[in-house]
Amino acid sequence: MSPEKRTLTEVEGRRLSLSNLDKVIYPDAGFTKADVISYYLHVAPVLLPHLAGRPVTFTRFPDGVGAPSFFEKHVKKGAPPWLRTVKVPRRSGDAGRAVEVIEYAMIEDLASLVWAANLAALELHVPMWRSVRDGSFGDFDTMVFDLDPGAPASMVECCAVARWLHDVLGDAGFEVVCPKTSGSKGLQLYVPLDPRRPGDEVRALAHGLARRLERDHPEAVVSNMRRDLRKGKVLIDWSQNHPVKTTIAPYSLRAQPRPTASTPVTWDEVASCERTRRADDLRFEAEDVLARVAAMGDLFASVLTAAGPARRRHRDHAE
Is 312 among the domain residues? Predict the structure, then answer.
């Protein structure tokens, strides 16, 4: 095994030792670890606000996307002493018992983000709540719906379902921000919650809304997680609305053959994809994302105002 190549650098006053910057992480694109770090450095101004206060689960690919990977929740041994961490319950429903906790990393500044990227933590997954204090879950400030197509359905069908879901949420008094791609096959819709709500309440609400769409469009939508029911339909995955579950963060890279990222898109782009039936129109790689941010800023910024005044009173219409 060749010796590890180390590069010393400083990020916002924090000294970091970066390793094997020339290692190819995305072989199909020749995209190296240096490219991964560069992407996260440049996208940081719009990414970090969406990570702030949220414990991060990493999906790490130390030898690239074609090699074995692993999830990492516990803070890696040897993490820098300045890295902020938070202790989160291992599971919900621990009332009356000693709470087992996991110590998570908080990626809230540029040095922490570069540290994570150097670990080949390509994917950054976060919950729909922000940490209030060690040893507890926060109330949800966001509700999420993950639209996952079952072949031969594709991103095109996800766009149609996203439009239907947008209308149903609007009828129920919720304000939906623009959707984002998952960076893989589907779309995700986020709903800011004001006031914040307990996770079990949000989960039940999301489940009810998903079942309503399934009843309205049984030929195109499924809300049951069983894989054998998904063929040719779009699963509305409501289950990520759970305190211990996470969703890919906006602007995070994904472990695809090429360096795609979870990318906010406009409703006009969704309508265009549905009309033209060109699924690849909503597929964006790292370079595309940076160009979009330079041109349009953070299309997902309204999620960050979840604690602000609501324009309309939320009414729970889910059954």
Answer: no
pLDDT level of residue 227 (50, 70, 90 thresholds): confident
Q: What are the tokens at 128? A: 């729909």
Query: What CATH number is associated with residue 258?
Result: 3.90.920.10
Assigned domain for 310 exists: no
In the structure encoding, which two tokens stand for residue 76, read together?
């890696």
Residues 237 and 5 sit within 8 Å (Cβ to Cβ): no
Q: Is residue 314 part of a domain?
A: no
How does DSSP classify residue 285? B
Please give the residue range of the domain that contains residue 183. Answer: 6-305
User: What's the total number of domains in the chain?
Assistant: 1
- Dihedral of the alpha carbons of 248, 251, 256, 257, in degrees to the nearest 10: -170
Q: What string of DSSP letters covers 214-283?
A: HHH-TTTEE-S--GGG-TTSEEEE-TT-STT--EEPTT-B--SSS-BB--B--HHHHHHHHHHT-GGGG-
CA angle, 289 as apex, 285 and 290 as ends, to 5°? 120
Alpha carbon of 238 to those of 107, 190, 200, 213, 275: distances in Å?
26, 11, 12, 12, 26
Domain membership flag for residue 205: yes
Is 310 a residue whose pLDDT tops 50? Answer: no
| DSSP per position, 111-157 | HHHHHHHHTTEEEEEE-SB---STTSPPPEEEEEEEEEEPTT--HHH
User: What's the pTM?
Assistant: 0.92
- Residue 134 clears pLDDT 60, i.e. is over it: yes
